[in-house]
Specification:
The structure is a homodimer. Chain A is mainly α and about 350 residues long. The first copy, chain A, has one domain (about 1-10, about 25-355): CHAD domain. Chain A contains 12 helices and no strands. The first copy, chain A, has helices at about 1-5, 30-55, 65-85, 95-130, 135-140, 155-185, 185-200, 215-230, 235, 260-280, 290-315, 320-355. The longest helix of chain A has about 40 residues, at about 95-130. The radius of gyration of chain A is 22 Å and the shape is globular. Chains A and B meet through helix 4, helix 6 and helix 12 of A and helix 4, helix 6 and helix 12 of B.
Amino acid sequence: MAQQHLDPPTSSVAGTAPRAPAPLDEGGAPIGDALAGYLRAQATEFLRSLRQHRETGAAASGAGESGDAARSLRRSARRISGSLHTFRPLLDADWSEGMRPELAWLSGTLAREHAYAARLERLLGALNRLSGTAVVPAQAGRAPAAAPRTGNLTVGAAKAGALLDRQLTLARTRAHSAALQALGSSRFHAVADSVAVLASEVPLAPAANTTDLRPLAAAAQDRLTDAVTALPLVVAGLPYNAEALVHGLSADTAPQPQDAPWHQVRLLLRLHRYASEALHQGECPVDVRLLGAGKALNRHRDAAEAASAAASAARTPRIAPATAYALGVLHADQRHEVEAARFAFQQAWQKEAVRTP
Amino acid sequence: MAQQHLDPPTSSVAGTAPRAPAPLDEGGAPIGDALAGYLRAQATEFLRSLRQHRETGAAASGAGESGDAARSLRRSARRISGSLHTFRPLLDADWSEGMRPELAWLSGTLAREHAYAARLERLLGALNRLSGTAVVPAQAGRAPAAAPRTGNLTVGAAKAGALLDRQLTLARTRAHSAALQALGSSRFHAVADSVAVLASEVPLAPAANTTDLRPLAAAAQDRLTDAVTALPLVVAGLPYNAEALVHGLSADTAPQPQDAPWHQVRLLLRLHRYASEALHQGECPVDVRLLGAGKALNRHRDAAEAASAAASAARTPRIAPATAYALGVLHADQRHEVEAARFAFQQAWQKEAVRTP
């Protein structure tokens, strides 16, 4: 069971749906029924995760089984939403357009708690690496209240860790409450009802019985390829190009405008992956190159947000200079992680281009 | 003339000495006379630079012709000292052992002023890159006296620039005075007298007429190769290994113990180069691979010292958190330059290994 809660990158359709070959039209093309099968499977998985989430107790703070269930919920919501977008012409337009923002709201709300926890873990891990000692939250809390002015750097790291722990734990707690509130809201119940309908009866458009899924999936791939082509990949492929930290001290750092095209590619890569899943229905081979590219972009996003959190913590009033110094080192470290992730993406993507000429 | 003041990496013997083929023994091996010719040429260049330095006025602060002359003086002093070391068995032992520390003292004293100026330039250049605005010393000086607590990052960068400018300009001024004092000292006059003797009569040992220079030069190359073999080149060859910033926030950062073997290789590479020059006397081809390796190690040293200067400035009492934050970013940026330089060295050295199997 546990394995289903992970997010396999180019996975088979997860969950309880039967794994049948994709329905084809008379000419052998996958059509509306194939999409309906994929959407039903995702909807079923969504409902299963929701049930599990309620059973394991939503009060648990994002960890353990409850966290797994929330992740699984988000995973299905993303796949349903992505498919509604990519295969829009095959679906009832009003229903589809009404559902997408609701799914986005839900997965966004559910993602936040986990994101804050992961960000804190990433930043404390980096501080440990940078200071050569364990700056675990507990230890960070025991740091002296006033750092000596002359700045013991390790004290700075411990105080920076304590500050980040305080800020991100607070944010996480708030996100947890918001998620609980969302799951009890009538807005959520409306989404769940829509998904329940989807699990039994996908509202296909009349065109669905004659429309080939493949051109729509190919269009999703084209949008990805175009967006990748617009990335500064030549620079990203030169190690230590020092681009990610450019303007790292300029007045308006958060969010870095240079990150946006990479975040966009991350979303388009996901849509491409979901489109392949819908097309191949459980017989989709794992593409290790796309997997590598996707992992690099996840790391890019995580590091960018961690860098931003460090910069933001440094703007806390009345912090000691040693704390601010440690946060500066940490910010730059995470921006270099951003650069490293772009390099990793470039390397993975190059291989991809060679494989599919 | 100006070209002679530069420091060509695997150059011909510079300066006024005649460029004759190296004297050989009956079997065709370069022996003591070849070494004597090289040392005489370097000694002549030393005296010429000294004369030029006096003429252009030692009061100029390390820039322009006076700076060129000082650089040229150091350049000859390093070559003489290095040759005394590598070809020790061919030279009068007492004289040679007395002279080396004096030459080291002289080139060390003369190098410091330039080093502080270059370090400041490197750090202000990095701050400009990081802040997206010109943090030139003049502008840095105009930064508001008190940064807002909430930390405008650009203000932090400007204040960090002003602080570094103040500290490194003071250090540079002191180094300039120390250099002037050294050049007027009886200790310096004794060194200059020894070099003047060297320019006419190299004190060779009796063995010099029968000793082949090549095994001694080969031993210098072996010491280099052994030291390079001991470097963590596999890690250095993996881009973004994040090694240079490890322990960047530990209590004892200056100097980083991990840098020492690289600095050592830099010195051994120089000794190897000087030994080749002595062996080939003006007919030494430029080895672009060793040139690349040497440049990478210079960059490594410069970035390591700049990172250390940023960390040290952050320990200044009563600085604003925004200033400390900017110095932290700057420190990490320069430590990544250190890592980039190691990668560049690894790449250059790999090519070298392929070329000379």
